[in-house]
TrEMBL record:
Family per record: Belongs to the TMEM19 family.
Record keyword Kinase present: no
Membrane topology category: Multi-pass membrane protein
Domain of life: Archaea
Keyword Transcription regulation in annotation: no
PANTHER family xrefs: TRANSMEMBRANE PROTEIN 19
Classification via InterPro entries: DUF92_TMEM19
Pfam families, per database record: DUF92
Protein's UniProt name: Integral membrane protein
GO CC annotation, single: membrane
Organism: Haloarcula marismortui ATCC 33799
Alphabetized UniProt keyword annotations: Membrane, Transmembrane, Transmembrane helix
């Protein structure tokens, strides 16, 4: 067993202390319950920075590379204090205690799964799969065990909401794996806190999920995510971002919503690869051989994700018809598709003109457009509008609204590219603002036209 595997196992053992928190809620005194919940983690943190010396075996077991420089187990202390902070939220506030257990073990055991996978094959995708798989299983087991323990001490219902447990465990494993792919191992406390707060939000939404939909979403998105990585249309963080967004879209939105999103991911990725060598010669090719990273994926999809979450929160939490958020979602995806198609296909043609002055500019100039690119962008928006019409109960006018959103997004992207890109915002910021403009257009039109 390698040192990294032993260290991950030791941290997993510390994470297992989370199962003591459901038992601590059985104390009648809130103060005693709070102390009992956070004491194990605070004690471990204190031992790491005051008692465990650099010459002890325990130090070698828990030490991360940076700990040797300071002679203190700061990594262990930060990990334990992050867990203590979440435990405090679980006992004193409304963070569900079983979910707290799930979050801690997702991160702790996910790291162990990642390290074990590395011993089998030194490959990032295999290691990430190990993190997600072990983290997911641990998250499910942790939530179930936390529910049982809390029920045993008389502080919770004995019934386990399995669909919700599966949804939270999968979401947590994907988010944690994504954050781990762009952060360092020492940032695990940040990963744990972020996953905990995000899953708390999902829990409060009280989504109507079924075990069947969650399982199908897992199978579909993991397969498509692997294909995107294998075909080099996305980097590992980009693939994880796409998997997470796709999973949430299927579970919270539906398969029709997902059909639009995956069409953008698939055709958008392939359009980037189209005549890539020629684009490289013209200086307009995407970096990393066209493999899109997490920033690029998020910039094109974050507005759509917010629309999915808002739709899940309405009308129970937001007094708005969910259909409004559907048009915002479809409009944002259509805009992302038009922008990708117009740039990837239009950039292959000569004589582009700056959208603000119509003067000829060099290919690849921000804000430069060609009629071929405009036509390709319109075709992309038409594809998204057609999928929406086939999968959702919307009128022909509704499809036209989505088409309009795509054209608005493409226009805004070009205008921002010609005016503020590079000086005020970067390319990813422009992409996000363009999809936001399209989403607002969709919502505004359906409100004013009375399509709800």
């Amino acid at each position: 067993m390698t040192g990294t595997v032993r260290r991950a196992g030791a941290f997993a053992a510390v994470g297992t202390l989370a199962v003591a928190v459901p038992a601590a809620t059985g104390f009648r005194s809130l103060e005693l319950a709070t102390v009992a919940a956070i004491a194990p983690f605070v004690l471990v943190a204190a031992l790491g920075v005051t008692v465990i010396g650099q010459d002890s075996r325990l130090f070698d077991l828990f030490a991360r590379p940076g700990d040797y420089e300071d002679g203190k187990l700061y990594g262990l202390a930060a990990f334990s204090l992050a867990a203590a902070g979440l435990a405090l939220l679980a006992v004193r506030f409304s963070l569900p205690v079983p979910m707290f257990v799930g979050v801690v073990v997702i991160v702790a055991y996910g790291n162990l799964g990642q390290r074990l996978a590395y011993t089998v094959r030194s490959d990032e995708v295999v290691a990430t799969a190990g993190f997600v798989l072990v983290g997911f299983v641990a998250g499910v087991a942790g939530q179930v065990l936390g529910t049982r323990i809390q029920a045993a001490v008389g502080e919770g219902a004995a019934a386990v909401d399995l669909p919700l447990v599966l949804f939270l465990a999968a979401s947590g494993a994907f988010v944690a794996a994504l954050l781990r792919s762009v952060l360092f191992e020492r940032d695990d406390p940040l990963v744990m806190l972020t996953v905990g707060l995000l899953l708390w939000l999902f829990f409060e939404l009280d989504p109507s999920v079924t075990a069947r939909r969650v399982v199908i979403a897992l199978a579909v998105t993991v397969l498509l995510g692997y294909l995107s990585y294998a075909l080099d249309t996305a980097s590992l963080p980009g693939m994880l971002t796409g998997v997470l967004l796709s999973f949430l879209t299927i579970v919270l939105g539906g398969f029709g919503w997902f059909a639009m999103l995956i069409t953008f991911f698939g055709l958008g990725g392939l359009s980037t690869k189209y005549r890539y060598d020629e684009k490289l010669d013209r200086g307009i090719a995407e970096e990393n051989e066209g493999a899109r990273g997490s920033g690029n994926v998020l910039a094109n999809s974050i507005v759509a994700l917010f629309a999915v979450v808002a739709a899940a929160a309405s009308p129970s939490h937001i007094a708005v018809d969910p259909l409004l958020f559907f048009y915002a979602f479809a409009g944002a995806v259509a805009a992302a598709m038009t922008d990708t198609f117009s740039s990837e296909f239009g950039g292959l043609y000569d004589n582009p003109r700056l959208i603000t002055t119509l003067r000829p500019v060099e290919p690849g100039t921000d804000g430069g457009v060609t009629w071929q690119g405009v036509a390709a962008g319109a075709a992309g928006a038409g594809i998204i509008a057609g999928i929406a019409a086939l999968t959702q109960d919307i009128s022909t006018v509704g499809s036209g609204v989505i088409l309009l959103c795509g054209l608005v997004g493409m226009t805004v992207d070009s205008l921002l590219g010609a005016t503020v890109e590079g000086s005020v915002v970067g390319n990813q910021g422009v992409n996000m603002l363009a999809t936001l403009a399209a989403a607002l257009t969709g919502a505004g039109v359906v409100l004013t036209a009375g399509l709800l």
